[in-house]
């Protein structure tokens, strides 16, 4: 089989060789030099560099116009390039999900409409232009969330105390979001009611519309708090038959039929309220935590599903002596421009027997200038294990209450210190 991979996610996060044979298939990786540099040197494949200045669909189409090639599958495991892969499939007539299906699991307005139409509860919401043009009151009062249609990592997400305060900040250009304050890009944003309650994420694998793997977790802190500079984590919990059925209904509503999924919901008064879903694996150390608990490496089985291989009978048995796992991440982007000097209060946690992984930024490393959960980029990531969800949660909250990050301003570059 001839396979084109739109390569963006670092190779070690996916480990493509675990899900598709590079000896049996002819695999081409299409990505920027930075992305291609993450491929193992001895991997049997073609590497095609792209400039990375335009959407990958446009650059791939131009490449193939000059060097025509046929492919049996076009794959992307990056949330940011799922739609490009669908556009390229449509352009070349390659099997797989097409744009109308993919956009349903990328656009937060469309997905909420679809889930609501399926009879499931969603936050009340409005596209931003309709919100600003409305003559009467919004369908909700109280706290109001402003967010992009297709954003990730809670970038450009704001919470206001009321709809009028949100509208005033947007109209007066004082949100702090540059393009909105310049009067641009309003069609790319939405507002919704703030729903309170614990936030859960559901991760797993689906093939032919059937949920084959499902792991449920609850967040400690929120993704928005992480964007604001607070630590974030989650711990695995049980999943009832009712919740499994709810997950299946959501996936059917947004037409996620093959591959991995990452679904988020708020539980209010015992009822799940849909937040968003992606046809991809979760970020941070979700993949590793799911594999530890279930034995299933989600990207590997997603690749097999996308290649049309039957997956259900290939799944491994869960590890004996079931344990719960949680992942945690400490941000550094809010301290951008500084150098990392180390942690305080970490010793009792770093050496705890429950710690499965502890990945700390090297002392002296620059702190990231963008929101990232990536090991080697942010201050600290790790995985912890426990016999119960409560044990993992309590360990993590203790960590978050105890740790502090030491930094110093970055040394000026030589050109800044020495006059020209």
Work out the number of β strands: 18
Task: Give average pLDDT, whole number.
Answer: 93
Task: Decide which structural class fits the backbone.
Answer: alpha+beta
Net shape = globular
User: How is the main sheet built?
Assistant: 8 strands, antiparallel
Describe this structure in words.
- By secondary structure, this protein is α+β, with helices and mostly antiparallel strands.
- It has three domains: 2-96, 3-Layer(aba) Sandwich (Rossmann fold); 124-193; 199-408, D-amino Acid Aminotransferase, Chain A, domain 1 (2-Layer Sandwich).
- It has 16 helices and 18 strands.
- The protein has helices spanning 11-14, 33-36, 56-66, 82-92, 99-102, 108-117, 128-133, 163-171, 178-181, 223-227, 241-253, 286-294, 298-306, 347-350, 389-402, 414-417, and strands at residues 2-6, 26-31, 46-49, 73-75, 125-127, 144-148, 158-160, 189-193, 199-207, 210-220, 232-237, 259-268, 271-278, 324-330, 338-344, 355-360, 380-386, 404-409.
- Helix 3 (56-66) packs parallel to helix 4.
- Residues 414-420 have low confidence and may be disordered.
